[in-house]
């Protein structure tokens, strides 16, 4: 069941998991197992509409990364809010930067 | 009040030399605070004056809700060229208000969404995201301040450089740099002449965090290489500049500054240096700006009170 959840792109519903596992399990059984996994901390769930969307706990970081990318891609002026470590490089900046860092490395070795 | 009411609109020009010189000649902490303070005061004064001129402009319009007395010739005489500037001030002030409200709202929205994206993770102060796009930033959130960094970036850095990266982002958070950045952003919206100050502050805030990181890890060169490497791996997003006009961008300037000697932590520069002169010019401009807007506000208040039949 966990591997089925991991194959999902993002959170999946219990119905999706049941379909994925191929028929033998009843919907209620799927729910029961998912709830047990939730108690063990192996999965997490969040409400989506009338049912729950389930996510494997180990994938929380990946899920957060995807959500964060969505936030960053959607905000054109995110630089104004989030002070990022580095900003983009201008046309000559890359050459200049390599020169500067090259110099510093030479100094370090000398 | 005469022409005094227009002074705060153009006095930001007196801060341009300082915006240009501060980043090289002042400690980045001093430069950030000074430039933000100047920008905030000037933006406030400029907006007050714009509002005063707008009152005169609005009172002339038919069907306005203002007391009739406010459209008296005496009131209008308080503002030179009242016909033109009074009406021009109406859309200008509306634009300032709308743009500022929008900027504030977007600021809140980005922070909320970013926090929501991280909601499923354990509440540690550093969130490491498995992503092949290299980026790192400081996400302010009161008690839930977080440093967000991707594995793609961490993989490219040595342990010492990672410490430099974290120290840099923590410096942003502990010194509340996002407030400075928001203040100058709003100031630049209130008066476009303040834009160079915004650019300067975004740079000096980064330099401030760089210097803090250098102090924390005990090596200026480590911070410099961390910035250089991070910029080179994330160079997929070039900044749009005209190639012919391209001066060295912020990243090479930061690296060069870190490879040079540490800046002196003087608080106020001597008047006999170029930056000292520029700082005094900006201080003078700010003072004049504050006095003219206060003078105009009081004058306008007295005139309007005299013109309002009670």
From TrEMBL, chain B:
**Gene3D superfamilies listed in its UniProt record:** Metalloproteases ('zincins'), catalytic domain
Question: In its keyword annotation, does this UniProt entry include Hydrolase?
Answer: yes
Which InterPro entries does the protein's record reference? Beta-lactam_resp_regulator, Peptidase_M48
Binding note for cofactor: Binds 1 zinc ion per subunit.
Q: Where are the transmembrane segments?
A: 6-22, 34-57, 88-105
Q: Where's the Peptidase M48 domain?
A: 102-184
A Pfam family the protein falls into: Peptidase_M48
| Necessary cofactors | Zn(2+)
Please provide the record's keywords in A-Z order.
Hydrolase, Membrane, Metal-binding, Metalloprotease, Protease, Transmembrane, Transmembrane helix, Zinc
Similarity comment text for this entry: Belongs to the peptidase M48 family.
This chain belongs to the protein called: M56 family metallopeptidase
Its source organism is Streptomyces viridiviolaceus
Lineage runs:
Bacteria, Bacillati, Actinomycetota, Actinomycetes, Kitasatosporales
């Amino acid at each position: 069941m966990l591997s089925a959840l991991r194959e999902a792109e993002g959170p999946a519903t219990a119905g999706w998991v049941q379909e994925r596992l191929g028929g033998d399990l009843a919907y209620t059984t799927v729910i029961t197992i998912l709830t047990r996994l939730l108690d063990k901390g192996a999965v997490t769930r969040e409400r989506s509409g009338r049912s729950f969307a389930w996510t494997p706990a180990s994938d929380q970081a990946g899920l957060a990364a995807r959500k964060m990318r969505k936030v960053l891609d959607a905000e054109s002026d995110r630089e104004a809010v989030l002070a990022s470590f580095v900003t983009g490089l201008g046309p000559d900046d890359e050459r200049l930067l390599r020169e500067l860092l090259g110099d510093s490395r030479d100094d370090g070795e000398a | 009040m005469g022409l005094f009411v227009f002074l705060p609109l153009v006095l930001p020009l007196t801060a341009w030399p300082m915006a240009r010189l501060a980043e090289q000649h002042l400690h980045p902490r001093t430069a950030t605070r000074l430039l933000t303070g100047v920008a905030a005061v000037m933006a406030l004064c400029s907006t007050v004056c714009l509002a005063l001129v707008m009152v005169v402009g609005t009172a002339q319009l038919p069907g306005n809700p203002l007391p009739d007395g406010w459209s008296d010739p005496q009131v209008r005489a308080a503002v030179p060229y009242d016909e033109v500037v009074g009406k021009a001030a109406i859309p200008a002030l509306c634009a300032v208000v709308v743009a500022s409200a929008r900027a504030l709202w977007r600021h809140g929205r980005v922070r909320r969404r970013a926090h929501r994206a991280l909601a499923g993770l354990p509440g540690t102060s550093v969130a490491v995201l498995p992503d092949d796009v290299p980026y790192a930033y400081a996400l302010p959130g009161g008690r839930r301040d977080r440093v967000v960094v991707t594995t793609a970036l961490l993989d490219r850095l040595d342990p010492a450089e990672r410490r430099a990266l974290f120290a840099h982002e923590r410096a942003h958070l502990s010194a509340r740099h996002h407030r400075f950045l928001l203040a100058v952003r709003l100031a630049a919206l209130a008066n476009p002449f303040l834009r160079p100050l915004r650019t300067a502050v975004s740079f000096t805030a980064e330099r401030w965090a760089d210097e803090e990181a250098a102090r924390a890890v005990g090596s200026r060169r480590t911070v410099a290489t961390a910035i250089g490497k991070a910029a080179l791996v994330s160079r997929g997003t070039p900044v749009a500049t005209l190639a012919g006009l391209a001066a060295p961008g912020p990243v090479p300037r930061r690296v060069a500054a870190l490879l040079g000697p540490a800046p002196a932590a003087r608080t106020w520069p001597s008047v006999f240096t170029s930056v000292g002169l520029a700082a005094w010019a900006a201080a003078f401009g700010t003072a004049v700006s504050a006095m003219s807007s206060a003078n105009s506000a009081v004058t306008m208040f007295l005139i309007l009170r005299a013109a309002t039949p009670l």
